[in-house]
Please model this.
Amino acid sequence: MADAPLRILQILRAPVGGLFRHVNDLTRELAARGHQIGIVADSLAKDGLTEERLNGLKPFATLGIHSLPMPRTIGPGDLTAPFAIRAIANKLDVDVLHGHGAKGGLNARWARIGARKRVALYTPHGGVLNYKVGSPVGLMFRLFEKGMVDFTDGFIFESRFAQQAFFRMIAEPTQPTPVIYNGLKPDEFEPITPGPDAKDFVFIGEFRAVKGIPQLFDALVDVRAPTGGRQHW
Model:
């Protein structure tokens, strides 16, 4: 299978953040290498920005971009989405189901059940690993994750930290568990001329404790401007 072009279906909930950057990069690069890619995303989280992002991938997603309900928390869509994804995969004769995030991973692996020649891969992207130890909801989701390990053909982690957190909190699978770091494109190394009101430090992300905002503030306490200079923050 590795020597022939693959038909790959990437499954995610909302096309946002680092998760979508990962899907975006994979879709473009895999397409450039001759593989055929399809995308399944949540129809409940649509807005102008998500539509724009997904539309940008249409030239590379030759198997199409498909939308169906995937609620962020537990909902009726959890019962119907796996069957709908399986139907899409069967129609498109898909070789690989790659689930991204907790909800995408769950749907990819449930959709793979019964299709022995189809491979199910999972990249957590944090997901259930973000819940605090002792959280009842986190415990429930981690039990779900542990129960799905045997239905997964391989786990792909974007960082060693995520890999080790999964081993510690969920399980250490016998399946392949490679770490494949997020890449950078050549144009991201182009120099940028700072504007007159540029700041020295910028945080971009969700305002959640798991993003490490308190640690950023703690680190900034010890930062001082050079003598005679001015602080921008």
Observations:
- The chain is about 35% helix and 10% strand.
